[in-house]
Design brief:
The protein is built from 14 helices and 11 strands. The chain has 327 residues and is an alpha/beta fold. It folds into 2 domains: 169 residues, 3-Layer(aba) Sandwich (Rossmann fold); 102 residues, Magnesium chelatase subunit I, C-Terminal domain (Helicase, Ruva Protein, domain 3, Orthogonal Bundle). A 5-stranded parallel sheet has the order 2-5-8-1-9. The mean pLDDT is 86.
Length: 327
């Protein structure tokens, strides 16, 4: 299939994306970038870590997304006293029958909102690992496959660190994207305020099905990515590991360790998903640059020297993107 035919196919098959955005727009005012990234995670079969202050519609966004595609949604409030069994389920002894019954936990849904994930201890955070990576849950000696699509959206509050358990790097790396949400503009906030005080927020209808998303995931793999863009992705990732090779000697003392191979995979998948959302059958460098911060910010660890100078992973990524030649 040539590029023109592929482009036409993707353009026709991705029509449901506009329908989905339109339905979510009934409830979520602004926050287009956040909603776009949620759909990228869904199409790329990845999970998302959301960071933002309270009240920025993080919970509402994923709930609306679930309602727009008639999927099962569960919100789990992570607290210091939460146990792994509260998340995945447990075995219960049936005294009458003299055997153990399995009671499934809230993880058995399509969309999981792990609210304030850093408030629960490590054993609960790690209980998410098997479900996120293997798409399965083991209770006792029995393993259950999770229903697709399956998306974990974990939130973190950046302004309050008392009584929290920071996520270990190994677990953070399992999230495809880390999205930082900022405040809405004045015009958007006025609209949000009016909708809420007048109780005029819309209710989303189920406009697409889970089958549409699963079909979209298959089509993502057909989106064409040129060898030059693959090389561009590798250059960005390798520049975080060996900055000297790319003429970025000043970054050597600022990066304690660079991005993992998951960064390369997710950058390519994210770029393909961005092209699909834009209803294109091929990836352009702008797709890579658009998703780069969300894929890389949690995979580039800065040194104490960088922290002392208030240099963030985002500023390091910006310097790399400015230096690496765009194909």
């Amino acid at each position: 299939m040539d590029i023109a035919q592929l482009n036409e196919k993707i353009k026709n098959e991705s029509a449901f994306i506009d329908l989905l955005f339109s339905e979510i727009g009934k409830v979520i005012v602004g926050q287009r970038e956040m909603v776009e990234r949620l759909v990228v995670g869904l199409l790329g079969n990845g999970h998302i870590l959301l960071e933002g202050v309270p009240g920025l519609a993080k919970t509402l966004a994923i709930k609306t997304l679930a309602q727009s595609m008639k999927a099962k949604f569960q919100r789990i409030q992570f607290t210091p006293d939460l146990l792994p069994a509260d998340l995945i389920g447990t075995q219960i002894y049936n005294q009458k029958e003299g055997n153990f019954l399995i009671r499934k936990g809230p993880i058995f849904s399509n969309f999981i909102l792990a609210d304030e994930i850093n408030r629960a201890p490590a054993k609960v955070q790690s209980a998410l690992l098997e479900s996120m990576q293997e798409r399965q849950v083991t209770i006792g000696a029995t393993t259950f496959k999770l229903e697709e699509p399956f998306l974990v959206l974990a939130t973190q509050n950046p302004i309050e660190q008392e009584g929290t358990y920071p996520l270990p790097e190994a677990q953070v790396d399992r999230f495809m994207l880390k999205i930082k949400i900022t405040y809405p503009g004045r015009k958007e906030e006025l609209e949000i305020m009016r909708h809420n005080i007048n109780d005029t927020l819309g209710t989303p209808n189920a406009v697409i099905s889970s089958a549409d998303i699963l079909k979209g995931r298959e089509l993502i793999h057909e989106v064409y990515i040129d060898e030059k863009i693959e090389k561009y992705i590798l250059d960005i990732v390798f520049a975080t590991r060996t900055p000297k090779d790319f003429g970025l000697e000043n970054l050597g003392d600022l990066i304690s360790y660079g991005a993992s191979p998951r960064a390369s995979i997710n950058l390519a998948l994210g770029a393909k998903a961005m092209a699909f959302i834009k209803r294109r059958g091929y990836v352009i460098p702008e797709d890579v640059r658009a998703i780069c911060y969300d894929v890389m910010r949690h995979r580039v660890a800065v040194t104490y020297e960088a922290e002392a100078e208030e240099i963030s992973p985002e500023s390091i990524i910006s310097e790399i993107l400015n230096k690496i030649e765009v194909p």
